[in-house]
Amino acid sequence: MEEGSIIKKADEFLQVFKKGEEFTKDILRENERLRFKLAEVEEMLARGGEEARAGVYANRIKLLEDELKSLKERFMQVEEENKDFASKYLEVEEENNNLANLYVASYQLHSTLDFSEVLRIVLEIVINLIGAECFGLYLVDEKTNELEAVAAEGISASELPRVVIGEGLIGKVAKEGDSYFSENIEASSRKPDEPIVCIPLKIKEHVIGVIAIYSLLVQKRSFSHVDYELFNLLAGHAATAIFSSKLYTQSERKLSTIQGFLDLLKDKPRR
Prior knowledge:
By secondary structure, the protein is α+β, with helices and mostly antiparallel strands.
């Protein structure tokens, strides 16, 4: 009986041991499964972290690209502003030069009362500042009411015929007192009655002469703002200078004649 009891207890122990062995195996399998699951989770977490970092980097790159684009736009804007400032500076500098030229021209016109010298100055202004190559300067002959060429450049004054006021283009400008500009100033004309530009010389509303331009220099392709200022200068200041010098020359001539006559009277012997 004792032997049977021992065998029974041994069987029970073996059963318990087998159950413990199976339980251990189950635990090991569950542990293996959990480790595998943990590895998967860690891999997923690692992958998710890389994607998150990639997203952060992508956003950072986009922000930097937007900032770079903004800086480029600002740079282009500043560059355009600099170009605009440079252009305005050149315009101001050119305007200052033009004003200086106008001042010099005005000063020269009124620097002398010699009629021939004034005519020479007018010719130089038209050549150097306006850029005319061929032109004539007409003055009104009060006795005949005609325009007579008193000076010219690129053509002889003797080749320019007298013009009746009111007739032809030059005569019409002298009568109405309005400047004439051809639509094609690059065209040249050697015909005395077909100028491309006509400028009346006026004292207030009284026309004393006309400058008729027949051709411009090759490099002169258009008129600028200062050219029209020069035309206004010629219309007013040149007219005044010419008229004043002409009166002065006539008065000097008359004074010289009277003085000569008085000298003759003084030298005449008495009886």
